[in-house]
Hints:
Layout lengths: L2 E4 L2 E4 L2 E8 L6 H16 L6 H7 L4 E5 L12 H9 L13 E9 L11 E9 L2 H4 L9 H12 L6 H9 L8 H22 L31 H22 L8 E6 L1 H7 L1 H21 L6 H7 L5 E6 L7 H14 L9 E6 L6 E8 L2 E8 L8 E3 L11 H4 L27 H8 L5
Parallel strand pairs: 3-6, 3-7, 7-8, 8-9
Antiparallel strand pairs: 1-2, 4-5, 5-6, 10-11, 11-12
Helix pairs in contact: 2-14, 6-7, 9-10
The site of guanosine-5'-triphosphate has 24 residues, from helix 1.
Amino acid sequence: MDWIGTARGLVPVRRTMRVGVTGLARAGKTALLTSIAANLLAAGAGLPALPALAARLAGRSFRVAVAPAGAEDLPRFDTAAHLAALARDPPSWPARTRTVSALALNLEIGQSGLLAALPPQRVRVELLDYPGEWLLDLPLLGLGFGAWSAAALRRVQNRREAAEFMAFLRALPARPPADEALARAGHRLYRALLHRLREETGLSLLQPGRFLMPAPGPEPPWLEFFPLADDSPLACLLRDRYDAYVGAVREQLMDPSFGRVDRLVVLADLLSALHAGPAAFADATAALAEVAEALRWSGSSLLPDWLTTLLGFGITRVAFAATKSDHVADRQRGNLAALAAAVTRLPMRSGLRTAAFAVSAVRCTEDVVWTLQGHPVSAVRGRVVGAERAGRSYPGEVPDKPPDAAFWTHPFLALPDFEPIRLPLGGRGGVPHLNLDALLAYLLEDVL
Ligand SMILES: Nc1nc2c(ncn2[C@@H]2O[C@H](COP(=O)(O)OP(=O)(O)OP(=O)(O)O)[C@@H](O)[C@H]2O)c(=O)[nH]1
Ligand SMILES: [Mg+2]
């Protein structure tokens, strides 16, 4: 820890911890950030919201406050509004996130033993919320237009949904001119194709993300591009626009946050992926792997791994977290955590610590035993959004490793949209969760 001299004597410098949360659209990022903020604030107020964290603190003082807005460009994550929505009767879930916002919390952790007389440790924890679609723009930072076009076309060319776009490409002249109308027509068809793939096939590896979730405000002219794998004048125009797009991703997502994270949480809604079927499951895990690879590449890659680790640069701790684990009973959550670790192939290096969790940021259910066709099964019970009364649900057995062909012959049952459990003290007591305390204790282990 570093110290600075002040009128009050030596005071420890506040350390900043940047936690990158990677999660595809609807993975549960906004719910997670809301729950982290609410539960840390409740724990800081002395309430029993995070037992695993309290155990680590072993009686030391713990204070938490939302960091005052500095002069940063990034809008603030609106914890109070998100929490108020969950605390309403009936509660409401966050809307799809449409732009980037930052959550910053100041923690003060008391010292113990021989150090007890020293001032508390001060840590600023920063997390970013953003539209999940935009996550898949991070891999574009390492790809030129030609390589991206080739990969994007390979992924779609034989799909039924792509017939119109592929016909447009085939109808282009041999060396198409840098023509505005052609660029616009191709862009519209490609964008419509991405929408169809998302809505009709459940695929996630769809780039660029802003074609699906545009940034607020008027669309910049450089947004109008599409993949084209040749060296025609039209391709040069599209390349310039692609480069401008990648520049915006670097400026808005990578530089202020992902490029500087020291811990990573890889969130995955694996239960929904299991429900969506083998193609969507494989696609979702491939998308997460691409992002993890892109983040490693973005780190201090000029240094050898051992030096990066020694100096504490770059990502030193990774948590794989399967979200919405309240859809299955406790007996299955071990498998869910194991699956989260098994499907996300992360490029490993020495000194990198990893752990896997099955979490529910906003708990909606309780565990029950249900007799199905004469057999007792561990099920859950919760109220579906809009329903009069609570009902039981048993989606199926969660595999502990990437599912094989036999698994896909018994499709994973539907996952109801549950309503959150009522919040204690209208939200001031935190948000009921599963295992969020263990996840936080792991992420903060070295400062606790
Ligand atoms: N049962 C249950 N459902 C959850 C939980 N967390 C999120 N959900 C559900 O998942 C949906 C998406 O959660 P969000 O937090 O909005 O997901 P996101 O990753 O922020 O999504 P985008 O903003 O679209 O990228 C919610 O509307 C809930 O229906 C949870 O802990 N338990
Ligand atoms: Mg969101």
